[in-house]
Amino acid sequence: MKNVLDPSQNRVVIIGGGPGGYEAALVAAQLGGDVMLVERSRAGGAAVVTDVVPSKSLIATAEVMVDLGQAEELGIRLVEEDSDGQPREDDGRAAVRADLEAINARIRRLAGAQADDIRDALATAGIKLIKGTGTLVGDRRVDIVEENGTEYTLDADTVLVAVGAHPRELPTAVPDGERILTWTQLYDLTELPEHLVVVGSGVTGAEFASAYNALGAKVTLVSSRDRVLPGQDEDAAEVLEQAFRRRGMTVLSRSRAESVERDDDGVVVTLADGRRVKASHCLMAVGSIPNTEELGLDAAGVQTEDSGHIVVDGVSRTSAPGVYAAGDCTNVMPLASVAAMQGRIAMWHALGDAVSPLKLRNVASNVFTAPEIATVGMQQAAYDDNRHDIETVMQPLQTNPRAKMQGITDGFVKIYARRGSGSVLGGVVVGPKASELIMPLTMAVENRLTVDQLSASFVVYPSLSGSLAEAARRLHHRGG
């Protein structure tokens, strides 16, 4: 017999503790809600435990390897020492290798520390963290099954569903956690793969291919499209693919993987045209599936797409009164930053605070490859359809003095602006730390600044951000 807990005023029940869930919980608590957060794993959810935090930690390590690889060009010699600590008389180059067991151990520690920090922040805010699962069973009623087996039902004024997504698996390439892997299983590896085949050239596939290539693994990237990152800016994708090939990565374009099978000492990836690629490991990066099955959405009147994604509006409302949704389980951009904003917007709306609907045109995103690709606002496809109303400029980083000092040869800044007014509509940054450089363009898009206002701002000399101002100046129209 389940106990039914009486609702208190402004009771908020959140199912899922990832960015959408925990950020919503903190806002709800700040606004005086009685907040209960249900999470089956650790605070922070998959984004912290197996996805964003671990993957970006791995990539940060790989960035160091990329920098070391460029040291020779900057005049830095890495020398090996003999047993007496003296430089060896050889070519003056030291062998630098990645200790994947140590790297992954550090990643797991970082993820655990971040989960603990989020848990502590939730506790400090007075939020009750329930370890278990939640299922919708009617009008804002949630059945809870705790990890210890305790069951009860919560009645709520507001429910937020933020259950995330999991890696898509193909029946002909079933992950085993040893040789055939999803991105959540990489952090148990103790040795660097001798040859890693990455199936899927979207953001996830490109990021891991880039990272493992930098760490020293032989990498083959299998792309079913004619280029890597088919959803990104074409110029940016071309720069990245050229960088991949220059660093020794094999990119198989227009190649679809039919199956992946284990053999005695590795895997065999069979392509649709009959080619077979033999390797030590295979990473499947073929998309994700929302965790919305067996959640009681139909019974609660929550509309979903055929894919299982929850349909939400600009303030994160679902089709069921009082039920909101955020994150990768919704039909909105699958980004941690978007999930967090969706969750915050949901609580601001539900609890009566001032709120503006989510504006996807203002969302900045980043691909954490080497080089990075950051984008915001209008992109190439929209420009191609509106060339009479929009103008653009692309400024190569090669001409930037700071880039020359740092040995940066790949990258550019691109700005889209409205013809006549000069309002900044969007932009692309390709280069090291593009995720940091995109911020001025994001501010410009958000606040409808013009290229003249952007270029009139002082920038440090020399700096990579100087290329943003230079690109904006090239779009200047003489007044009067």
Automatic annotation (TrEMBL):
This is NAD(P)H dehydrogenase (quinone). Binds 1 FAD per subunit. Belongs to the class-I pyridine nucleotide-disulfide oxidoreductase family. It comes from the Bacteria. FAD binds at residues 56, 134, 328. Its cofactor is FAD. The keyword Nucleotide-binding applies. GO terms for molecular function: flavin adenine dinucleotide binding; NAD(P)H dehydrogenase (quinone) activity. PANTHER family: MERCURIC REDUCTASE, NAD(P)H DEHYDROGENASE (QUINONE). InterPro entries: FAD/NAD-bd_sf, FAD/NAD-binding_dom, FAD/NAD-linked_Rdtase_dimer_sf, Pyr_nuc-diS_OxRdtase, Pyr_nucl-diS_OxRdtase_dimer. Keywords: FAD, Flavoprotein, NAD, Nucleotide-binding, Oxidoreductase. Residues 364-471 form the Pyridine nucleotide-disulphide oxidoreductase dimerisation domain. NAD(+) binds at residues 200-207, 287.
